[in-house]
Design brief:
Radius of gyration: 28 Å
Strand order of the largest sheet: 1-2-3-5-4
Helix content: 55-70%
Number of helices: 9
Strand content: 5-15%
Structural class: alpha+beta
Distance between the termini: 46 Å
Order of helices and strands: HHHHHHEHEEHEEH
Length: 331
Amino acid sequence: MHAEIWLSCREQARHILAECAHALRHGNSAPLNPQLSRKTRKLGGARISQGVTPVYSVRAGSLFFNLTLGFLGRLLEGSPGSEHYLMKALPALQTAITRRLEEGSTGQELFLLDVVRDAAQQGRHGMAREIHDRIGSSASLALRQLELYELTQNSSPPTDVRLSSLKQAILETLYTTRDIVTELRTRSDSTRSLQVALSAFVTAMAVEEPSVEIRVTDPDDLLPSALCDELFIMVRECLRNALAHASASRVTIDVEVDAHQARAVVGDDGIGFSPAKQRGNGLASLHERALLLGGEVTITSTPGAGTAVMLSVPITEENHADDGPGRGTGD
């Protein structure tokens, strides 16, 4: 286990240095790498499943920063312009480390989201078993007994209409039970897990003010689990920005899903800002994530008039690929 952790730390360090070098050469942060982001998230989830808390990741990032800073100091000692170079290198190094820590933290949150989703699925499977074993079995037994009763009667008189109606009612109960059991066993219930995960994030932030209202609407459960993860990351980032910077009294989150797209609006009644003049790493990352999913982000805000961030992401067959059989686009 220690060797595996050491190898993963070394790989993360290489990526951090590569991003730092890119920033120094080109004057801006390296573009978001979806494969690397997924890998870092997976690593973060693996760590929390092993009982390694996020504080150790922060300590590792701090240690790596100090070691790199010391190495650069010794390397550039006595060189002309060394202080200027260090002043450029330090922000780039900090940004690269922060990005890795954010992705790792996201992986830990997604691991908890999976726990919620699995718990909901286990609950549905247990309900499916109960319905099948109790209602389904009882209805099947009643149907068999009714058929045996019919066999014992004289077949020459016309069949009792009441018996035919009763038999039809039992058959309909069996069909309905079968449909309910199938639905319970195949649904992923991403909508519910997204609502629970966002609520859990608000609870974890110990938010007393502003008030946060969350509404996720997906009556046909069309949100694929993979897209649910990405949507959670983006909405959480919007919510985090609102809580940290908006000075709002109320924040609302509205997510609506149909067969073709998922739309989310995060609004607040806070101090607002000028989107054209303010574009931090968080907003840039938000736009990058949406673009990678084929979606878009629209920010409406003016100083003193609150902010609304609108996310729109298409639902495609590729989104459903990881959901397995039983899930579709609703067409």
